[in-house]
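Dear colleagues,

As part of the handover before I leave the project, I'm documenting each prediction I ran so the next person doesn't have to rerun anything. This entry is a single chain, and its sequence is reproduced below.
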Amino acid sequence: MLRAEQVTKTFTRKHGPVTALDHVSLDIKDEEFVAIIGPSGSGKSTLLLALGGMSAPSEGTVTCNGDAVYTWGVAERANWRAKQVGFVFQAFNLVPYLTVYENVSVGLALSGEKDVTDAKILPLLEKMKIADRKDHIPSELSVGQQQRVALARALVKNPSIILADEPTGNLDPETGGEVMDIIKQQHQSGKTVVVITHDPHIAQMAQRKIRIVDGKIVDNR
């Protein structure tokens, strides 16, 4: 279970402090599919990063199965993310000079896997319908193909938690639907899924919707 307890995140800006999260508390059960919704600038992405061990709260705690994530050392937290958490970013964050195959293999290698082989990568590329592009670099791919590579990189290590920030935000409806089908299949296979979205159709796929406005949860059901 992922849990946030009274999590506050404040950033220092030239004009003064800005509170992105304001005493947010929530539980996300194992194998649950949760959508986080709300207007732009409401704190959704900040919450996702906090839950994934990438941005320490200014106040409050984040726990995974009872362990306080931000009491771990930097290396321990990075190892947890590498093995257990699959991040999918709207901006893809692919390495521009690596091929599709190499970008996906990076996700596997970072998890500590020493046996980075075709057998572990090519079936996933086939599933993502990008096997024929395995030797291409990101700039040679369509936007939809780049998102599939980013999703494959997150899934290749078989994480127990998938955190996706607007995974269909840059995609046409058909491609976005295909990406969400893959994410839904991951949930059905027993993974915990948290998706940030502006799309009400995607939000309806989730078991629960958490709405954030001005850094506060205003609905959680």
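The mean pLDDT is 93. The first strand starts at residue 2 and ends at 13.

All the best with the project,
I.
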